[in-house]
């Protein structure tokens, strides 16, 4: 099941990144594209920890 952020725009023309958790991996895709990428669950968890920790915020 693909999920998108609640902060993504609404409507047909809104761009967003969608995530599907698939056992030991996370699948990531651009809502406008057909291809997706897969990353291991630990890498996805590390990415989320970094983002939630505001390390990229200026």
Written description of the protein model:
With 58 residues, this protein is of the alpha+beta class. The protein contains one helix and four strands. The chain has a four-stranded antiparallel beta sheet. A hairpin with a 5-residue loop joins strand 3 (25-30) and strand 4 (36-40). The chain is globular and about 30 Å long. The termini are far apart. The model has no long low-confidence stretch (mean pLDDT 80).
Question: Biggest sheet, strands in spatial order?
Answer: 1-2-3-4
- Could you say which overall geometry the principal axes of the C-alpha atoms support? globular
Given as residue ranges, the uncertain stretches (5+ residues, pLDDT < 50) are none
Helix content: 10-25%
Characterize the biggest β-sheet.
Answer: 4 strands, antiparallel
Q: Give the helix tally.
A: 1
How many angstroms separate the termini? 33 Å
H-E string: EEEEH
What would you call the structural class? alpha+beta
Strand content: 25-35%
Oligomer category: single chain
Number of strands: 4
Short account of what is shown:
With 58 residues, the protein is of the alpha+beta class.
Task: Describe this protein with a few key phrases.
58 residues, 4-stranded antiparallel β-sheet, 21% helix, 33% strand, globular
SSE inventory with pairings:
Elements: E1 3-4, E2 17-22, E3 25-30, E4 36-40, H1 41-52
Antiparallel strand pairs: 1-2, 2-3, 3-4
